[in-house]
Amino acid sequence: MDERTLFTGFWTNESRTTRNVLARIPEGSDYRPDPKSRTAQEIAWQIVCEEKMLIEALESGKAEWAPAPTPPTMKAVLEAYEQQSAGMEPRWSALPADRWDRPVEFFGSQRSVSSIVWGFLFDIIHHRGQLTTYLRPMGSTVPQVYGPTADEP
After folding, report:
1. How far is Cα 68 from Cα 97, in angstroms, rounded to an integer?
2. Cystine design at 105: which of 30, 51, 62, 93 (Cβ 3.0–4.6 Å)?
3. Strand boundaries in 1-123, DSSP class E
4. Which residues contact 86 (CB under 8 A, 6 or more apart)?
């Protein structure tokens, strides 16, 4: 199995789980565990923007960070994630095979595609984990991530 196939499989599975976590964020919640922390909606939007930046960097050969403002509702964030996610697998598959062997300009330096894609996947998983710790204090439930939870045995 080549790296693109391996990565795309992981990405697709993790994306489904991320969607399930985002769907549990209550509308209108401004919960944050600490004044320095971001709200769940802000973290969710960070995930959306990171995924968008990543695929566009691979398609263009250059990473550019220019996130749009956070939408006013969690519903809009979730809809953006779902729409974007629906088109990701075809975009990963459409990348030329040699794209995985060429470096990408990553904020002023050249980096291997492998280090960028796996690094961002792990960062998104990290942010998703943050969100799971927010859910119960916001009055929501925690979906299964890598196995049962107290809310979904």
Report:
1. 30
2. 62
3. 62-63, 104-106, 109-111
4. none
With beta carbons less than 8 A apart as the criterion, state whether 138 and 39 touch. Answer: no
CB count, 10 Å around CB of 85? 18
Q: What pLDDT does 57 receive?
A: 94
**In this structure, what token pair is assigned to residue 84?**
């974007």
In tens, the pLDDT along 25-40 reads 999 999 999 999 999 9
- Closest Cα partner for 8 from 121, 149, 132? 121
Whether 73 and 40 have beta carbons less than 8 Å apart is answered as no
Q: Please state whether the predicted TM-score (pTM) of the whole model is above 0.85.
A: yes
CA separation for the pair 19, 99 (Å, rounded): 27
Largest CA distance in the chain: 47
Q: Which amino acid is at 50?
A: E
Q: How many CB atoms lie within 10 A of CB 88?
A: 17
CA dist 96 and 113 (Å) reads 12
Q: How many CB atoms neighbour CB 63 within 10 A?
A: 18
- C-alpha to C-alpha distance for 140 and 97, rounded to whole angstroms: 42
- Strand order through the sheet with 104-106: 62-63, 104-106, 109-111
